[in-house]
Q: What sequence folds into this?
């Protein structure tokens, strides 16, 4: 697994380490956004520090693998606007290097993480995988390249590939203390620290929030059943929650009112996002999503313990 010490990767490592169908889990991570602490207490996961931009590091972890989950990325729309080339190098070129390593080592199943940001300026809701993609940020363009390369390797070389478009994933292990923090950890951190919640815009923008346990359950099922598919698959369940509604739910969880600070909208952000879950439900019929309020309770509990 690439990015195995990151937020989603570490949650997936922890789940896979408990599965009977998994013999060994190896996590490759350069620790630029991931952390060794995320895998603490999980001795059955082997963490190797290295980069997806180095063939030797990739060969060391992919040789003999039956499945590769490629989660390593340079995340964040604002970060990509600040340094587009660095985002391209990791997300697009890095994906190519992972795919080439898979070709060198027996063509294992490869599952890659794309993003709902690829829909970009397309205003139609819910987002169906057959819609036109109109990226509005370098990050979104790099994620479109990620999925396109993976699926093209399936068509060109017979590589068993599966590309998921993640929507707004949240939950334990997701960091908050940096300028590019995602909205849920940023809100939870401020709520518990007594600071105003930062809202870019008026807060009516909507997102399809997906709890990380649901995401890793789908990923684990994909590995277990060796699911491959020739087109992208949304990994979200069709909820549409505004940031103001998210704050209302968070207030119920923490038990008190939360102050808010509105700032200008951020460049590259899309106003609304909601997944069509038809394809996901057809491929993974046994997975049921965690309700938003339950996911927020678990996230708040983890933040409190971590503090």
A:
């Amino acid at each position: 697994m690439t990015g195995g010490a990151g937020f989603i990767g570490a949650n997936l490592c922890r789940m896979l380490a408990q599965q009977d169908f998994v013999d060994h889990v190896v996590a490759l991570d350069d620790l630029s956004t991931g952390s060794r602490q995320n895998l603490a207490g999980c001795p059955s996961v082997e963490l190797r520090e290295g980069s997806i931009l180095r063939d030797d590091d990739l060969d060391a972890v992919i040789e003999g693998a039956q499945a590769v989950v490629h989660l390593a990325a340079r995340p964040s729309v604002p970060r990509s606007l600040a340094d587009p080339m660095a985002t391209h190098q990791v997300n697009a070129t890095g994906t190519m290097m992972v795919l080439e390593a898979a070709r060198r080592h027996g063509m294992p199943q490869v599952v890659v993480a794309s993003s709902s940001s690829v829909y970009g300026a397309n205003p139609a809701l819910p987002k169906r995988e057959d819609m036109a993609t109109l990226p509005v940020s370098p990050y979104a363009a790099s994620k479109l390249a990620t999925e396109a390369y993976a699926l093209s390797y399936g068509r060109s070389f017979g590589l068993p590939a599966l590309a998921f478009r993640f929507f707004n994933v949240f939950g334990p292990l997701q960091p908050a203390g940096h300028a590019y923090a995602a909205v849920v950890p940023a809100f939870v951190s401020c709520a518990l620290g007594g600071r105003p919640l930062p809202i870019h815009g008026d807060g009516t923008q909507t997102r399809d929030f997906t709890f990380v346990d649901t995401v890793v359950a789908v990923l684990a099922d994909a590995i277990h059943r060796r699911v491959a598919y020739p087109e992208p698959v949304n990994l979200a369940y069709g909820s549409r929650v505004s940031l103001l509604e998210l704050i209302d739910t968070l207030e119920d969880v923490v038990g008190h009112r939360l102050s808010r600070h509105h700032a200008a909208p951020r460049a590259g952000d899309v106003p609304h996002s909601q997944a069509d879950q038809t394809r996901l439900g057809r491929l993974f019929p046994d997975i049921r999503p965690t309700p938003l309020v339950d996911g927020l309770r678990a996230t708040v509990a983890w933040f409190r313990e971590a503090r």
